[in-house]
Structures are given as structure tokens and as C-alpha cells.
Amino acid sequence: MILCLTHSQDTFTIDLVQQRLEALGYEGFRFNSDEFGTKYRLRYRLHATGPQYELRCGNRVIDAREIRGVWYRKMWDLQVPPSLDPAYVPAFLKEYRTSLHIFLDSLDVPWINRMDLDHAVGANKLMQLTAARSVGLHVPQTLFSNHAEDAIRFFDDHGGNVVVKLHGALSKSMDGKSDFFPTTRLRKEDVPMLESLSACPMILQEYVPKDRELRVIYIDGDFYTGSLRAPELTDWRTGNTTLVSWETWELPAAVEEKIHDMMTLLGLPFGAIDMIVRPDGEHVFLEVNPQGEWGMLEKYLGFPIAATIAEKLVNRIEQYG
């Protein structure tokens, strides 16, 4: 059995991966992380032969020893029962989060991706940029600061060609319909607003002229790359997403090799990588999202991403023994 760790609103991608797992002879059990405190029961017992962990959902009982691999798609915040007294909500969240991680930490099996590495990389864009530069990928000049003088000097040093963005995304989707702060070109008239950085540190980067934006899906050495032309937008999600037209893109072999080296260095078998192709053809690394969206590439370009995730995980399981 393979545990598919996701959330209750996940559609399309989770179904495709489970279908391929079943075709390969493995049952995929969908575990909606946000419903853990409302629809699941967890039991831990310490026997003379060792610990026993059980996950219960309705009449279904899963012994942790049955789980041979984990696909870590996403984890969402826990749902709180509406009948719960607000005074008990902090304890509810704390204890259920602890229980969930005790269960997941017990799974000494192949993961795509391992949760600790997934979270560490996803939460640290500066680590990503450092790793990308170390393997030879081109990355933009970057400043992360809460100090207005630093930001103003950075703006001036780059002749005003600077974009600004939050370190963490506010949106959970690629369609731009949720609340999010997009990557924004900083204008001269915006510079006085940098005095407010003390309230919210932000990332400033040199503006990179672009011919295309790329979403590169990396799966354990395989690549699926979609591209789009959106030169008039700093962040394509700020436009009308119904007009966005994804096209296939062939990464140069040297760029693929460097991305592979970076992902190996970060310990991630899966990642959604954002890049820019400059008008001169140079590929510029922006970031890697260990839980990035890819359904649009499978849907519009026909990439077998879901099947590849399932196959790569099964390969790791069979090699693990």
C-alpha cells in the first residue's frame, strides 16, 4: 500500500497518480490531511515486539507496517469541528498535529518527497538560490531585508530594474484566484513605501528581461517543461489566466544536468521549478516549489507527470526491498 498524503480539495492530480499506482499493482490510500481531526482515528500501542501504529477511517484500518511508500502531495491545516468550544481549539490543533507527525515519522519507507526536506527547502528560498548558484545555474541578484536603506541602495544599484515579492506565497493555487501577493516590478514612486519593510521583510531581485516563463517539473531525473509567453506581466497570474497558453519547451541538456545536480543536493526527488528564458536565450533560475502545481501541464500539454510520479515511487520501493 502507498499512502497518498493530500487534502480534501485536491482533484485531478491525486486521481491520476492513484490510477497509475493501481495499474502497477499497488493500492494508493488517499489520506486527506486537513480531515485528520474530524474523520480519522489514530492508535499507538507499545507491544513487547515493538510499537504498533494504526490509522482508522470509517471501517478501514491501516497498520503502518502495511505502508510501503508515501507520495507527499500536500498538507493542509486541520479542520476544526464546528461544535468544539473555542477555548479548546489551541489544544485540539496542538495535539492532533503532534499525533499526525508521530504517525508520519514512523513511516521508514521511500517518500516523494521526504517531509522534513520538503519543508526545509520550501521554507527557504535563499537556500534554493544558494544551491542553484553552487551547481552553475544563473540566478538573479537578490536581497532579503527588513531595512529600508538596504532596499533603496539595492534599487539604485540596479538602476531601478528591481522586482519585489514575499518570501512565502499566500496563494494555494496556480490560477491566481486566491489571495496572493504577486511578484511586482518596483517603480520609483514606490520607493518611499520601502520604509514599511520593518513590518514585513521582503525579497528584492534584479529584474530579468524575459522571452518566456518556464514551469519545469522534475521527477527523479525526468523533466517535463511547459512555457508561456507573458512578457508584459511580471507575474503571469495577475493577468487573465483563461488567456494563458502553455507550450512545450525543450531544456538544454546542460541546464537539465545542473537542475538534476541541484535537486540531488537539496535531497528532493520532486520539484516544480520556475525559470525565465531571457531574450538572449539564457535560462535563469527563480525558485523550486517542492509541492508545486503541475496539473495544468498534464491537462493542456499531455505530459505523463502523474504516471511518472507513480512509477518513480514504485521503483524506489522495489529498490528499497
From TrEMBL:
Keywords: ATP-binding, Nucleotide-binding. The keyword ATP-binding applies. It comes from the Bacteria. Residues 129-314 form the ATP-grasp domain. This is MvdC/MvdD family ATP grasp protein.
